Amino acid sequence: GENVEQHPSTLSVQEGDSAVIKCTYSDSASNYFPWYKQELGKRPQLIIDIRSNVGEKKDQRIAVTLNKTAKHFSLHITETQPEDSAVYFCAASSRNTGNQFYFGTGTSLTVIP
Amino acid sequence: SAVISQKPSRDICQRGTSLTIQCQVDSQVTMMFWYRQQPGQSLTLIATANQGSEATYESGFVIDKFPISRPNLTFSTLTVSNMSPEDSSIYLCSVSIDEQFFGPGTRLTVL
Fold this sequence. Notes:
The complex is a heterodimer. By secondary structure, chain A is mostly beta strands. Chain A is 0% helix and 56% strand. In chain A, strands 2, 4, 5, 9, 10 and 11 form a 6-stranded mixed β-sheet that branches. Chain A is globular. By secondary structure, chain B is mostly beta strands. Chain B has strands at 4-7, 10-13, 19-25, 31-37, 43-50, 56-57, 68-72, 75-80, 89-97, 99-102, 106-110. In chain B, strand 5 and strand 6 (56-57) form a beta hairpin. The termini of chain B are far apart.
């Protein structure tokens, strides 16, 4: 099955700085890569996603890049704010394997005011 | 989008007992997914519940321990059987409609 690795496990940045979280995946059939934000005690919420036919996608302060050849994708958060503090999970999925989502190990992001 | 509810939201159970978690979706979906999230950990897929067929389990999870029902396209149950403290976790159901939506989770504590 799919194996998703995520780095770093913890990340602290000063407010206003950028944060980058990286993931790699193993299954070349994976073609959908979402990112989730999970605040303490809450369910994961989708913040951005990218499909394998696109190399980059941006939504305001959040962007995701995908390198299919190298099988890695990254989340970029610019101008970080304290409310960005949360745990972020990457995931990989393939409709070929029934849409199961396999998650990375998570990154705990702390934005220091 | 999809609205997903789960029951119970939390429970405290004794070792050796079983708990059935219910998941209800507000739209018909072919597949429903059950995840486990242990404290401070990531989400681990337990199984995929297909309507009209047996659930498909991921490596490390077996039907005897986590029996699943899927009686219709909007409902599923996950039973955690013969519980031990290691089963203490949050259990989430999920559906995939363009994106993946999660239920609020069931926080299980086994004493």
